[in-house]
Design a protein that fits this description.
about 450 residues; about 20% strand; alpha/beta; 12 helices; 5-stranded parallel β-sheet; 5-stranded mixed barrel
Length: about 450
């Protein structure tokens, strides 16, 4: 490379995708490229796409087209598209959006430099078995990463791929079989990040509770979390994306006993009706889920449980949905998200009968969220008067007059916040500080309080 080029990255989709973007930026920065957050100033722009469901696909395409406009009279000379959308629609993207100069799949991250150069390849080869690389990619602690999160928080991808066969999901086809990083690699990365001032570590993968199973580790996630909790400087460690049938007593013990392991479970249950769950190819049923929730709350006092559900899955009848509503009322989740079913070609559910009208699916989703909003409001009201530990994140997005932070039971980006409207005179908290906040008001999802 003869001259320094400015490269901008637009990362769409989930935190797992964000880590991929951070890796690509790190690899480019190591080669001497200048990374900028200003798309207008970039000579090369990489859009790391999500292709999981229809709405994410549309956002990805819209973003690509928006970025392509910067090539008209601007500084942008090369537009690179990466990620899951490339894995699904490589040929279509090449054909339909000629402004795209290069395409790179999820297992080709190491090759990013070869496609950002002006004379670089337009598309890396697709191999005969359908995979986009001769080997499935997984970064390690030696891989450069240019983190895009706040300095005090970092995602750590502990595994990649998935072996489940959920009927609504195509992730295994996009990202390959489940494969874990070694515990040693993860611990070394955590130690390096902690030395740089990271305080909160969020462990992610497609199926976090399966961590280590391919390495013949028993209770792999529990042992990993326990080891990370012992690393100096780790104030909080949380893990996301738990499969409901793989939560062990040892994992609950570690969470209960380690004060810096966040009392927080993210368990996408997807539904409660046995019939729908079977059509989804998911393990468990309402009764087993209720036992699981009871076991978690019994073993880990003060725990918050987050889940997600899909409404409108093929074959979901009114009685199935009513069972789901009743389950949500009974389980009283602390956090919840709802997706309406997206009919994805290449997913097993695409060929199922009894398709649900999208309008009906959306209406069910709205009703389910209204139920959860009432639950959330009541739970938040019970916190009024309590003092909680909060990780300060800076000025609120709602108003410069408010500060904003999170409790250990609130994960970054997806859960509510604690808004702070009163700071003692002489106290100047900074982003990344932990403060004690007395809760004074409760809203549907956010809390309001004062630093004490």
């Amino acid at each position: 490379m003869t001259t320094t080029k400015k490269v901008a990255m637009v990362s769409l989709g989930c935190p797992k995708n964000l880590v991929d973007s951070e890796v690509m930026m790190g690899l480019l920065a190591r080669q001497g490229y200048e990374i900028t957050t200003d798309s207008q100033a970039a000579e090369v722009l990489v859009v790391n796409t999500c292709g999981f469901i229809d709405s994410a696909r549309q956002e990805s395409v819209d973003t690509i087209l928006e970025m392509a406009q910067l090539k008209q009279g601007g500084k942008l000379k090369r537009l690179v598209v990466a990620g899951c959308l490339v894995e699904r629609y490589r040929d279509e993207l090449q054909r339909e959006i000629p402004e795209i100069d290069a395409l790179i799949g999820v297992n080709q991250l190491k090759e990013i430099e070869s496609v950002v150069e002006p004379n670089g390849r337009r598309s890396l080869p697709v191999y005969s078995d359908g995979a986009s690389a001769p080997e499935l990619y997984l970064y390690d602690e030696t891989t450069p990463r240019l983190r895009a999160t706040a300095p005090y928080t970092s995602y750590v991808k502990i595994a990649e791929g998935c072996d489940h066969t959920c009927a609504f999901c195509i992730i295994p086809k996009l990202r390959g079989v489940f494969r874990s990083r070694s515990p040693e690699s993860i611990i070394r990365e955590v130690e390096m990040l902690a030395a740089q001032g990271v305080k909160e570590f969020v462990l992610i993968s497609q199926d976090t509770t399966t961590y280590g199973s391919d390495l013949a580790l028993n209770d792999g996630l529990a042992r990993l979390v326990d080891s990370i909790a012992r690393v100096p400087g780790v104030e909080w460690v949380r893990f996301m994306y738990c499969y409901p049938t793989a939560i062990t007593d040892e994992l609950l013990r570690v969470m209960a006993e380690r004060p810096n392991v966040c009392k927080y479970f993210d368990i996408p249950l997807q539904h409660a009706s046995r019939r729908v769950l079977q059509r989804m190819r998911r393990g468990g049923n309402r009764q087993s889920y209720e036992r699981l929730i009871e076991r978690i709350r019994e073993r880990v006092p003060g725990v918050a449980i987050r889940t997600t559900f899909i409404t409108g899955f093929p074959g979901e009848r009114e009685e199935d949905f009513e069972e789901l509503v009743d389950f949500v009322k009974t389980a009283s989740f602390d956090r919840m998200g709802v997706f309406t079913y997206s009919d994805e070609e290449n997913a097993a559910a695409f060929d199922l009968d009894e398709k649900v009208d999208p309008v009906v699916a959306a209406r069910r989703g709205e009703r389910l969220m209204k139920v959860q909003t009432r639950i959330s409001r009541l739970k938040n009201r019970k916190l009024i008067g309590r003092r909680v530990r909060v990780l300060l994140e800076g000025k609120s997005k709602e108003s410069d007059l408010l500060l904003e932070g999170r409790m250990e039971t609130q994960a970054p980006e997806i859960d509510g916040s604690v808004l702070i409207n009163d700071v003692p005179e002489g106290v100047e908290p900074r982003p990344g500080d932990f403060v004690t906040v007395e809760i004074t008001e409760a809203h549907d999802y956010d809390l309001v309080g004062r630093i004490v």
